[in-house]
Inverse folding.
């Protein structure tokens, strides 16, 4: 269900905004409440709803898939086109105004927040089991 809503209402290449994630999350919770036959009078928290459905929130699913794909890409050889796309820097002039937040910039921000660098991530991604544990630890529900 997540893949259907990931690009809902956005241009190609943009990452979902907080508002759009909230809308998607609300839609999924509404569907789950209908599936379980709950009405607004039933006192069921969202955490209980996610537990019953054996699901995690959409923002965590997106983050987990993003970091999983990054590990997959970092394990590829350096001459692979997908791996080269991570470090590609287009030349030329850009449009006026604030640069749009790209997938790469978003990842770089998270890498810096965690105190890592790209070479360390490349080394960590070589061991798949440890990488999965790292992604799972990073993407826990709050």
């Amino acid at each position: 269900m997540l893949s259907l809503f990931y690009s809902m209402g956005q241009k190609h290449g943009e990452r979902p905004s907080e508002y759009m994630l909230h809308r998607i999350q609300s839609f999924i919770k509404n569907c789950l409440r209908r599936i379980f036959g709950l009405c607004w009078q039933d006192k069921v928290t969202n955490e209980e709803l996610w537990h019953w459905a054996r699901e995690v929130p959409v923002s965590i699913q997106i983050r987990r898939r993003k970091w999983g794909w990054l590990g997959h890409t970092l394990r590829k050889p350096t001459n692979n086109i997908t791996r080269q796309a991570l470090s590609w820097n287009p030349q030329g002039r850009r449009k006026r105004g604030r640069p749009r937040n790209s997938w790469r910039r978003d990842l770089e921000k998270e890498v810096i927040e965690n105190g890592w660098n790209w070479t360390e991530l490349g080394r960590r991604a070589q061991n798949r089991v440890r990488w999965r544990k790292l992604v799972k630890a990073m993407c826990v529900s709050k």
Remarks:
- Residues 2-7+16-55 form one domain.
- Residues 18-35 form the longest helix (18 residues).
- The helical segments are 2-5, 18-35, 46-53, 58-74, 81-87, 103-113, 118-125, 128-138.
